[in-house]
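The protein record filed below.
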Amino acid sequence: MTPAVESTAAGLTAAGFNRTYNSLGVGTPSCWWSSIMVVVILSLLCMASSAVEPDRIFLRDGSTLSGNIVEETPDTYRTLIPASPAPLSTNVSVKAVRYVVYGTSAKARTNLRLDEAARALGANDPAQVRFLPTEAFGEAINEAVSSAQLRVWILAYYISGGSHPTIDQFYVSLSAKARSGVDVQVISEFGKGTPMPIRNDTMNFTQTLQDDGIKVRFIQEYRVMHKKMLLMDRDKVFLGSANLTGSAVSSSDEFNVLIESEPFASKAEADFTRLAQQAKTSDELDY
């Protein structure tokens, strides 16, 4: 790491601040209040600057860097790390990064080019989107299922429970919702292209879910149903790479999104309904 050229809190160096302060004629009655106002304004600017959440870079070795990402290239994140007397500049290799959490939503929109993508897609639905890497995904699905009132519909390539406290709690809550009358349905994969251990795990766990009132069906077509989706109530859709397993909320590198939007949820509902028409119960499967 190399030192940054200059540390400029609130846009002024300490020397620059002293020059500004002295040039006002501090000590003369006519400039006293002006001097006080300068001090107050600069103090507020410094407080505002320090109140901004830092960007956080989560590395593959388990460590985390906090600072200000000032430039991104295909290979590196150039980042200013807080230090005294001046921030340190370092280049973080993209290959070493698991994921990045930006300090502000505005910075995330800019760096991820969300507005540009929305314009290209002609999107006009004011959806709220949360990005959920591995552990955050587990926390979010538990929060969402606990508040579900109408339905929880799930597309999952692979389901298994009891292997991790986070996913175990999810299935406990899911079963409780089914027993309380919430419409809980699961469509999973049981095709010949799926490894036998995964099919066996899924089928063994299916009976547990069905005993709790959860409707479980399977896709058994010539191609694998590899979708991962959770549709909760009328407006919440989870999409991403994670299966509903212990490793997917703890040790695997996963990335998911939660989209809160009724128009988007209606499209997810149509996709689920289409697959439900093809799905089979465990008794109808061809082994």
In short: Residues 190 and 196 are 9 Å apart (CA to CA). The longest strand covers residues 64-72. The two ends are 59 Å apart (CA to CA).
